[in-house]
Amino acid sequence: MLDEAAKHIGYKEGPNNDNMFGRWYGDNYQPWCAMFVSYCASKSGNDDIIPHYESCAAGVDWFQNRGLWSSTPSVGAIVFYGPGGGDHTEIVESFDATTITTIGGNTNNGDSPNGDGVYRHENRSRSNPRIFGYGHPNYKEEEDIDMPKRVSLARKTELVLKRNTVTQIPFIDEYSDGGDQHPDKGGPAFISSNSDYIATAAATLKDVKPGLTIQTRFNEINAKGETVKEGPIEEHQGTGGNTYITQTRAGAVCDPGNRVVWTIEIINGDVDPTLTYAEVQANYWPR
Prior knowledge:
- The protein is built from 4 helices and 17 strands.
- The chain is mainly β.
- A 6-stranded antiparallel beta sheet has the order 1-6-2-3-4-5. Strands 7, 8, 10, 11, 15 and 17 form a 6-stranded antiparallel beta sheet that branches. Strands 9, 12, 13, 14 and 16 form a 5-stranded antiparallel beta sheet that branches.
- It is elongated.
C-alpha cells in the first residue's frame, strides 16, 4: 500500500482536475484525494479491506460501521480531515508521539484539500484540529513488512502511584489488539510475542509538585511478572495541577517469552500522585 502510494509522489494533474486516478475510477475532473487512496488500495491488493470511495464522508462511514475507527494513527491507516472527515483523505506513512507523515493526492506542499498533485506531508502535528480521525484497515498477514499489527490500549480509571516505587501501568480499555498482545485484560502487558516494535505511551498525573522528577521506561517482564530487561529511562518534570507525560520507544525488540510494559516512578515528594489517564499505542512486526 505504502509502496504503491510513494510511486506517485510528484505526479501532477492536468487542467480542470484531469488525472489518472479519476480516469481509473470512472469519474474524472473531480476532487480526487479519495480516488487516489482507492487506486493505491486496488493496485496493492488491499481493495477488500479499504473501501472503493470517492466521497471522504463515505470512507469515514465505511470504517466506523466496521469498528475500524479511532483518534490515533497507525502505519497504513487512512486519515480523514475536516468536519466529519469530509474534506480530505490521505495515507499515514509513519508517526511518532506528536506528528504524522502522510502521502496524499489532490493536495499540495501546504495544507490544501484541493491541490494539484501527489505529495508527501512530513511531520504534521497530530494535534492539528483539521484531523477528524483514522480508519484502520485489517491488513493481511502476508502484507509487506511495513504494515505491522497494531495495539491500542487505555486506562481511564484513577491509580495512585506510590513514591519511589516503579509501577507497571495496567490498561483496562482495548481499542485494538491485533494478535492478542494484551492477553491479561486489565494487565500491563501490551506486546507479548517475539517482535520488533515501536510504542508511544502517555499519561496525565495530578498532585505532582512543580519540578518533581518523574521517570518512565519500557521494560520487559517474564511470565512471573519479573523485570528481565529494562529500557532507557526518560525523565519528566512535574508542572503542578495536571502533569502530562509521554514517551516513545522505537527500534525495540521484545525477546521470546517476554512481555513489554510501561512503567512510571515518582522520585521523592511528600504526596503520592494519582494517575488519571494513560494510553499506549504500539505497532509491531512479529519475528
